Structures are given as C-alpha cells and as structure tokens.
C-alpha cells in the first residue's frame, strides 16, 4: 500500500509539538528521528564497538509522518506550512510503499513492562513463550500504540492504579487497542474501543484475537456513535488536547457517578487548557502525571 510520507526537519525542542500538529492534520503514524537518543542508546547498551554507523541518523532531528494517498497533497503541505510558521523547519515529501518499511521498526520493539503488572510482548516474539495473566501481545500494524510512547505508558500506569474488577471502560481513540486490552486483562468486564480510523479498528480486532479478548466491543466512529445507555467507570482518552477539550462535555453522558476520566496525548504547554476545560465541565482533578514533555490527567465526575 502506498502512502504520502512527509518529513519535517526541525529543532529538537519542537519534536513533540510537531508530532501533535501532524496527528491533528490526519497523520496515520509518525516516526521520530533523534540522533542524540540513538547515540545514547548505543552507549547505554555498551555496544559502541559493534554498532553499525548506519544506525546513527544523518539528520539530527526530524519527524516523519504518513498520510493517506486520498489526501490533497498541495493542500496538506499548505496547511502544514501555516501550522509550522512559528518554527524553524524544512519540509520534504515523497510517495512510499509500506512493503519496503512497515516491518523494519520491529527490530526496535522488544518485550517490556508498561506498568506494575502489565508486560507488553511483541506478537513476533511469542514463539515458545508462556503467556502470563497480565501479558499483552501486540502488533500495532499501521495503528498508533506499541506502548513505548510516553502518553500510552502514562495511561497504562493510571489504568493499572485505578481499575477495579468488573469495571466498564471506554477507550476513545483506541489506536492499536493496547489500552482496551490492558483494561480487560486487569479485570474490566465490558470494554468499548472507539476510533475514527478503520486501520485502528482492524488492528484492535487483530490484537484482541492474539490476547483472547474478543469480547471487547469495537466501534468505528466518534464517541457519539456509542449507545447512550453505556456508562463507564473509566473513560480513557489518549488523543490530543484539542479533542479532549471538545469532548469533555460529552464524556459526562457516558460516565457513571464517581467515574473517572484518564486522558493523555497532552503536551505540557496545553496542560492548563485541558485542566480548565475539565473544571468548567464540573470534573475534579484527581491526579496529574508527567513523562518528559507529556502529561496525563485523571479527573473525577
């Protein structure tokens, strides 16, 4: 399958902001190139003598995003240039075939603990392994969500902390389904995974099969597509600040009394905007967690 690949060469301080701008314009996935992180990883692993120099990026910092071929490329580039006008960037683009690159990233995705109880295991590493009670098997495909991004791990830790047996969970913007599956593994009864992207719903269904959590209900569309009688103990929204702000009033329609919202995808510069929106809607802020430039907020109804 072919995609429009947009590369934004930028300053290190702007990487996270640019990532969120690309997602807000419809990116199906992003790849961050940070020369410093690659060099630090090689040093931490003590493999400097054996490291292939080709592993170290030539570009210092850039964000690569992938858009559907249905996009109007000229219009997309114009919108991106406008959104990035206050940043020092260089934009490049090309058409790529995912056959050439879609599996390359797998060599960097390894088994890891995402929370106190939950272990994430790549599907291709499962051969000969015994699955533990809280192990989650993942192959995100083209959907966002391996669990390695700060926003996903922040949400996973908060789910692990607050979820109770037999809870109902709504996962808004489910991506690969990782947070829905974690919720189910940790004891949730009914779980609803919602996303606007068909690729995300397909990835969620596939990962549910890997984890024997097929009872998770997938919904292609917006939150409003979910039946209004569904009431959640926890709503998870790992999306972006603007969408969380827009959805804050609607969340209450799907939340039980004393239910919680766990939201992330929030860059630190937008933290107060999200808090203000939640407070305006009558929620109480219970906990705020940070990881690098990212924020996760837990609020009570």
Describe the model:
- The chain has 301 residues and is of the alpha/beta class.
- It folds into two domains: 2-102, Alpha-Beta Plaits; 105-300, 3-Layer(aba) Sandwich (Rossmann fold).
- Helix content is 29%, strand content 30%.
- It contains eight helices and 14 strands.
- It has helices at 15-24, 35-44, 73-83, 150-162, 178-185, 198-211, 241-251, 271-280; strands at residues 2-9, 29-34, 61-67, 90-97, 112-113, 119-122, 135-138, 168-172, 190-195, 217-220, 232-238, 255-267, 284-291, 294-300.
- The strands form three sheets. It has a seven-stranded mixed β-sheet, with helices on both faces. Strands 2-3-1-4 form a four-stranded antiparallel β-sheet. Strands 5-6-7 form a three-stranded mixed β-sheet.
- Helix 4 (150-162) packs parallel to helix 5 (178-185) and helix 7 runs parallel beside helix 8.
- The protein is globular and about 50 Å long.
- Residues 45-58 have low confidence and may be disordered.
List the helices and strands and how they pair.
Blueprint: E1 2-9, H1 15-24, E2 29-34, H2 35-44, E3 61-67, H3 73-83, E4 90-97, E5 112-113, E6 119-122, E7 135-138, H4 150-162, E8 168-172, H5 178-185, E9 190-195, H6 198-211, E10 217-220, E11 232-238, H7 241-251, E12 255-267, H8 271-280, E13 284-291, E14 294-300
Parallel strand pairs: 6-7, 8-9, 8-11, 9-10, 11-12
Antiparallel strand pairs: 1-3, 1-4, 2-3, 5-6, 12-14, 13-14
Helix pairs in contact: 4-5, 7-8
């Amino acid at each position: 399958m072919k995609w429009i690949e947009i590369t934004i060469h930028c300053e290190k301080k702007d990487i996270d902001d640019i990532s969120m701008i690309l997602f807000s314009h419809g990116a199906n996935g992003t790849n961050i190139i940070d020369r410093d992180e690659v060099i630090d990883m090689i040093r931490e692993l003590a493999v400097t003598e054996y490291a292939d120099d080709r592993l170290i990026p030539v570009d210092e910092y850039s964000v690569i995003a992938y858009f559907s071929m249905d996009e109007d490329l000229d219009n997309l580039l114009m919108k991106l240039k406008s959104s990035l006008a206050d940043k020092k960037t260089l934009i490049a683009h090309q058409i790529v075939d995912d056959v050439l690159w879609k599996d390359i990233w797998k060599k960097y995705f390894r088994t890891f603990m995402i929370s106190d109880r939950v272990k994430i295991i790549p599907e291709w590493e499962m051969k000969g392994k015994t699955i533990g009670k809280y192990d989650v098997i993942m192959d995100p495909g083209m959907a966002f969500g391996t669990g390695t991004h700060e926003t996903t791990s922040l949400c996973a830790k908060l789910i692990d902390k607050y979820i109770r047996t037999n809870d109902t969970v709504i996962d808004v913007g489910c991506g690969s389904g990782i947070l829905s599956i974690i919720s189910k593994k940790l004891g949730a009864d009914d779980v609803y995974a919602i996303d606007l992207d068909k690729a995300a719903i397909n990835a969620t269904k596939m990962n549910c099969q890997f984890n024997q959590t097929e009872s998770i209900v997938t919904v292609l569309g917006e939150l409003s597509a979910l039946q209004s009688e569904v009431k959640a103990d926890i709503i998870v929204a790992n999306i972006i600040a603007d969408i969380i702000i827009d959805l804050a009033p609607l969340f209450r329609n799907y939340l039980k009394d004393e239910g919680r919202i766990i939201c992330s995808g929030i860059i630190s510069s937008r933290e107060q905007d999200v808090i203000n929106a939640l407070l305006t809607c009558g929620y109480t802020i219970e906990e705020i967690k940070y990881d690098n430039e990212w924020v996760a907020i837990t609020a009570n109804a």
